[in-house]
Structure formats: structure tokens, C-alpha cells
Design brief:
Strand content: under 5%
Number of helices: 3
Shape: elongated
Helix content: 25-40%
Number of strands: 2
Largest sheet: 2 strands, antiparallel
Length: 123
């Protein structure tokens, strides 16, 4: 066994005619794709924004921007009830509760001057 026969041949063997080399993409098409794909992505983003932003506007999800429905509801707020306490309702029916339910009367927690809390009925 000779060491020379184990060495790599100096010239690569040629491929048979039945196995042509795969075609390489040209550099021009790669450059065109580098410019085209960001534009396609931008168009998809604009389309998605055109569908999502109007819904966000009407649901008041955009910070600092209020829909006309928001201003309509804001004009119905009565600010002269600050002495009567707050009546919470689990459902917003559009017409707020203006009277305290009888089972809730005297159950407001009041903070004491010396610290601590007491029910209004204990005062």
C-alpha cells in the first residue's frame, strides 16, 4: 500500500452527463427579493392595521384617544353625587343606580383619626 494512492486526487472527478449541477439563484433575483419582501411585509402590516385600528378606536383601547361613544357617556356623568357615596353595580346597563340598596346601608368602612377602620353602623 502506497501513501500516494490514499491522497486526494488533484482534480475532482467530473460528474456524469446524467447528473447536472443544480442551478444557483442569480444575484439579481436575490437583490430583488431583498427589496421586495420588506414591501410585501409592509403591505400586510397596513392591511392588518386597517382591520384592527377601527376596532381599537371604538373599544377605547388607544391611549389618549376617545371615541364619540366615550364622550357621549362622559357627558352623562353626574359629578354632584360626591356627598352621597358611591353605589357600585356589577352590570353597566346605561342607567346608573342612584339609590343605595337597603341591604348596603350603614356598611361603609370609615377610617378613624387614630388609625384603623370601623363600619359606619358602629359610629
Amino acid at each position: 500500500l502506497k501513501w500516494a494512492s490514499l491522497a486526494r486526487p488533484s482534480t475532482p472527478p467530473s460528474l456524469p452527463a446524467a447528473c447536472p449541477r443544480p442551478a444557483r439563484p442569480s444575484f439579481a433575483s436575490a437583490r430583488a427579493m431583498d427589496k421586495l419582501m420588506p414591501a410585501v411585509g409592509g403591505m400586510i402590516g397596513l392591511w392588518a392595521a386597517s382591520k384592527i385600528v377601527p376596532v381599537m378606536y371604538h373599544w377605547d383601547l388607544i391611549p389618549g384617544v376617545a371615541s364619540p361613544a366615550y364622550w357621549e357617556r362622559a357627558n352623562k356623568i353626574k359629578y354632584n353625587y360626591y356627598t352621597e357615596g358611591i353605589v357600585y353595580s356589577p352590570y353597566d346597563t346605561g342607567d346608573p343606580i342612584r339609590e343605595m340598596p337597603p341591604e348596603c346601608a350603614g356598611k361603609m368602612m370609615l377610617r378613624q383619626k387614630g388609625g384603623g377602620w370601623k363600619l359606619q353602623s358602629e359610629m
